[in-house]
Each structure stands twice: as C-alpha cells, then as structure tokens.
Amino acid sequence: MGKLRIGIIGCGSIARVKHVRALLQFPDRCEITALADMQPAAAYSLRKDLLPGAKVYEDFEELLNDPSVDAVHICTPNHSHCEIAVKALNAGKHVMCEKPMAESYADACRMVEAAKKNQRKLTVGYQNRFRDDSQAVHAAALAGDLGEIYYAKAHATRRKKGPHMGPLPLDGGAGRRAADRYRHPRHRPRPVVYG
After folding, report:
1. What angle, rounded to 10 degrees, do the helices at 81-90 and 105-118 form?
2. Do the Cβ atoms of 12 and 42 come closer than 8 Å?
3. Is the overall model pTM greater than 0.70, yes or no?
4. Cis omega (within 30 of 0) on the bond before 100?
5. Are the CB atoms for 34 and 57 separated by under 8 Å?
6. pLDDT per position as a tens digit, 105-149
C-alpha cells in the first residue's frame, strides 16, 4: 500500500497546530495533498507555511471530488462535522473527524451509517484516551489498585475559548471528554473505527 493521501478541511488553528504537524511526522506513511477552507486565505497561508505542494480548494466539496485524496481530516466548527463527514464518506473518502463527533446522537448515527454503507473508515479525535496518564489510571483501575470505583470527577481547562463556542462549561464539552477518559474499567472505552 502506498502513502495515504490526505485532505484537510478547515485550515484554522486546530488543523495547523495539531493535525498537520502530527501528520508531517509520518512522511513515509502519508502526505497532505489538498486543503479546503471557506476562508481561502487560511488555506493559502497553511500551504505557504507548511505544505507547498498541496492543492487549495475554496469549497470542500471540490476537494471531495479530487481522486488524489484518499482520506480527510475534518477540522471545522462542530455544527458542520456531520454534513461534511457524510458527504466525504459518500464520496469514498475515509474520515478523521475532530471532536466532538456530532451535535446530536442522530447526526452521529448518520455518520456511522454512511461509513458502513460506503465501507470507509470513520474515526474521531478522542486522543486523550491514549495519553500516558489516562492509560496509567485505566490500568490501575483494571488491576483493582484503586478499590471499588463508585464516583469519579474530571476537570479540564483550556487556554482560550474557541471562536465559535464561548467559554467551555464543565458539564459538557472539555469536561465531558475528560470524564470519558476515566470511565469504569468494566466499560472499557476503546477507539472506535468504523469500516
């Protein structure tokens, strides 16, 4: 199998700082071939700074029609994740979606069904489950080192608020994702990749 050819949809800070920099660490496995953003200046800036060979699309659907793209990373505002993911999967692309997966259970189900129907992989960036500290707590709980777990509390902080969502309440958003890392070990969270 050759390199996985990736398109980035949404070229803001999460794409630039996290996704692109992580993907560039694996030049033998993947290459970023295309960028799309509804604010073209963001895509052109990312290409200029880090990805001189990437094509730039002003409309993500044009990127989805590009046969030289095998998979996409969706790095757009939360409300757009479902629409873009379903269209990408229907276009035959594998999808890595930034968290949260969708704004509703029904939208998440639509994404999963599109992945199954098109036999494509769909995953969501819940990377914190694989952090060393998360894995250590999980292993200790599985080994019984923490006794019977009947209550857990998680806390998450963020340097700055996202441009589209305001401050993050701890009863949802980042707090909910932090709590997800420490579920009871009998309910062993595992990465879910459909395809």
Report:
1. 10
2. yes
3. yes
4. yes
5. yes
6. 999 999 999 999 999 999 998 777 778 888 898 899 899 998 888
